[in-house]
Description:
The complex is a heterodimer.
Chain A: H1 11-35, H2 52-58, H3 61-94, H4 100-108, H5 115-128, H6 135-159, H7 163-171, H8 176-205, H9 208-213, H10 221-231, H11 236-264
Chain B: E1 3-5, E2 11-13, H1 21-27, H2 36-57, H3 68-75, H4 77-109, H5 113-128, H6 131-142, H7 147-154, H8 166-189, H9 195-202, H10 207-235, H11 239-244, H12 252-261, H13 266-290, H14 293-300
Antiparallel strand pairs in B: 1-2
Helix pairs in contact in B: 2-13, 3-13, 4-8, 4-10, 8-10, 8-14, 9-10, 10-13, 12-13
Amino acid sequence: MGSDALINPSLPVRIAAWVMLAFLMAPVLIIIPVSFSSAQYLSFPPPGLSLQWYERFFGNKDWLSAIWVSVQVATLSAGLTIVVSTLAAIPLVRSDFSRKTLVYGLLLAPMIVPVIITAIALYFVFARIGMGGTVVAIAIGHTIVVMPIAIVVLSATLQGVDSRLENAAMSLGANRFQAFRKVTLPLIAPGIISAGLFAFLTSFDELVIPLFLGGPNAQTLAVRIWNSVMLEIEPTIAAVSTFLIALTVVVMIAANLVKKARRWA
Amino acid sequence: MSVQVDTQGTVRVSQTAAPAEETKASWRGGQLWLLLPALALLAVFFAYPLFDVVLRSFRDSQGGFTIQNYEAFFSRAIYIRVLLLTIEIAFLTTVFSLVVGYPLAYVLANSGPAARSFMMLCVMLPFMTSILVRTYGWMVILRPNGIVNTALVTLGLGETQLIYNRSGLMIGMVYTMLPYMVLTLYSVMRGIDGRFVAVAQSLGAGRWSAFWRIYFPLSMPGVAGGSLLVFILAAGFYITPRLMGGDRDQMLASIIAYQVDVLLNFNFASAIAVILLIITLACFGLYARVVGLKQLLTSKV
């Protein structure tokens, strides 16, 4: 899509656009040099280079256990999200049923409700059934938040696969499950991987759900950062932040490679 | 396109793979149970908890039915102030994001492939990066001894309070919402044929009037969609107002969190949550009517 004929924006408009891009990148870019500062306090530009803040980050049990909790939560929630969303995408794309619009609306509803409301609603329910403050509770919360987007991505991916391929496999003797596993699944694998990566990153970074559902035993990295930032702006956070920016870049590159692989396939 | 929207704002999944009739028949029925895990998860961990919040908002401390939580909210000046402030901040965030995001989306949509992919990276990288990381970045830049203030002092202009007040809140909000606005505008602008503007100019319209009379009206779905999306997201926002706003600039979400976390006032917190939910759903209803759901899906993915 898109038109062949592009308009040539005038110079002031171009300048305004690049200033806005700088505005968007500034807070992300500023953190990286700060994290390598040799100063004992936060200063910019840094007087010299040092890895002291990374030593403090990776040498601290609290930070490491927070990373571990986040990895568990994000892995669990990404896994749950892609299984449930892939299954849901099949009838949404392949079946005709009268209430499809309603079902789609229900599945996408968590996208509309502010996360703070979802978080306190889950907090009340998990507290009642004694699941508050667990990794599983946070992972379920994140699955609810990410699932609508995963369903959209996976439905779109499945649209691109001709269902006649599956029927051909079935006419050659495969049962429906075999046909799906051997024919359709490999074809939609790139979509599943992208959705999984997106779910992992979203869960890793999301703060509001673990803020309410986490407890002393399930403090995610985001919650740990939040607690530090509320107290003081120390440069250790810059090292943690640079670590998270690197994670984001790695995930974006991985998602891009998956997309390219799909194009070549 | 995977999802279609009619004038009522309902979503339909179109069969672009165009399977033959008998193919469809082989899938009909039978497969619907695959929806069960997703629907069960949502019923237990989304629909029921929300329903519980609504019930709770009508409960007094003894567990009986009451509307005192709502009365308490609407009879106290401080809560009315928070409600109006939430709407005001969300509105201002929307206006600023639009003013700032429109030229960016315009240049993005009308650039060559190389420039466009670089610009897209500059929009997507911050968008995907943790909101805490970005907020921390702003704290480094804006705080009293931060970069901006150091520069101002060096230039002899004196220090300015840029964070922990209204200006900090607005910078943070506009910054966070800008990608949503830009991506929504961009997806609409990519569909506008530049030749319409060229034709208008060849017929004698000036650059400015060709833009205002041809391009801008064609981009209106993006303007409406982006604005409503940003308003909805901004109204329920929690993290940035807490970290970058002042104590007097707390919005509904912060008050809900405070009632739950500090005061353990669960029923009252539920009533405020219901009020925020009603505002959000009303805006979303307008959104679905004006723009349709397709925009929301494309801009978030």
